[in-house]
Structures are given as structure tokens and as C-alpha cells.
Amino acid sequence: MGYSYSYIFPNAQHSNYTSNPTSIRSGVATAAQSADKNPKRRMSRRITIETSTSGQQYVSIQRSRSGSRQTSQYLHPPHHHHHHDYGLVCEVENLKKALAAAQAETHRLGSVVIPQLECQIANLSAENETLRRQLQNTTGRHVRHPAEVEALRIRICHQDKEIKDLKCDKASLERRLEDLLRQISQHRCGGCGGGCSSRIEELVRDAAQWKDKFFDMQDRRNALSDLADAQERKIRAYEDILRRNGFICP
Q: CA distances (Å), 8 to each of 12, 45, 47, 104, in order?
């Protein structure tokens, strides 16, 4: 079994080295001088010194020289390397452009869009707070509104009944008035006295009084109906607000 030691000499070229260190040094010097004179024939710098099992040293020279093809590959890389390098350069340029666009978009978002959104959020928060206060103010009253509306509806029903009764009275009075007018005309033709004219005037006054009463009741009925409609619309709006904010079930 032997042992090997490797030594690296700059620009070494020789084919027959011995185990004598003096010969190795002289060979290295000669190889260096020869390599300096003829650079094309430079050889490998690696020299391997091996020893036998008894410890005797002997020299094994490993020569190697790069061929023209390998040298050409080092000096002139293949075309696909240039193509790959060009692709990398284009990719780097595209990444730089994308980075610049992203930075511009980030600046626009930070200087324009985000302030607008913050302003909108502030406005919506203020509006929400206003609606919340209104809701809190109306929460205690929305329970009373259905009872008030129901009372108004009952009053409207009574007013409708009174109006119907007044319409019936008006119709009967109109019929009586027509009968009286017909009687007046007949009495005038027959020579009626002053008692008949006074009765006619009394009936005319009654008819005018009932007529005024009818129109007054009709106006009151219309006002109550409008008030009930307005209250009902308000209640619907309050219920929608309460439903949106989760205070009542939909």
C-alpha cells in the first residue's frame, strides 16, 4: 500500500521526474523556462509524488493539456449562453419596469386613494353616529306610535260614520227642501200668507246650518286621514331603521 502527496508548481512541464528533490526543482525550473518561451505548450501544474509500502519515494507525473475545443469554449462561449444572458437582461429590465410601476402605484394609493377613503370613512362614521342618535331618540317613542295610529284609525272610522249619517241627513233635508219649495210655489200661486214665508226661511237656515256642519266634518275627516297617513309613513321609516340596525327582527 502506498501513500501519495500532491504538490502544485506554477507553469510546470516535464516528462521524466525522479524522486530527488534537486532533480524536481531543476525540472520545475526547466519546465517554467520552457513554458515561458512557448506559452502554447503550458502543461498542468499538478505533480504527484507517491511512496511504496517501504517508504521509498518515486515520482508519477500526470500530464494534461486543454484541447482547442475546451479553450475555445472558455474564450468563446456557445451561442445559447449569449441567448440565455440576453434573456436574463430582458427579464431584469422588465422587473425594473414592474418595480417602478408598482412604486408609482403605491405612491398614488398613499397620496390620493387612501386619503379619499379616509375622508369617506370619516363622513360615513359621522352619518352613522347621527343616525344612531336619532335612533336612540326615537326608540322610546316607536312603541307609542302604533297605539296612536290605531286610535286615529278608530277616530277616522267614527268620523266616516258621522259623515255617512250627515250625508243621509243632507239627502233627507234636500228632499224636504224640494217639497217645501214646491209647496211655496203652489202657495204663491194660491196666495199664501206671511206664516208660510217665515217657515221657509227657517227651513233654509236649517239647511245651511246642516250643510256647514257637513263640510266641517268632512274637513276634519280629511285632516285626520292625512295625519294618520303621515304617522304611518314615519312608523314604517322607524321600523326600517330599527331593522337595519338589528334592534327588531325583520
A: 9, 5, 6, 57
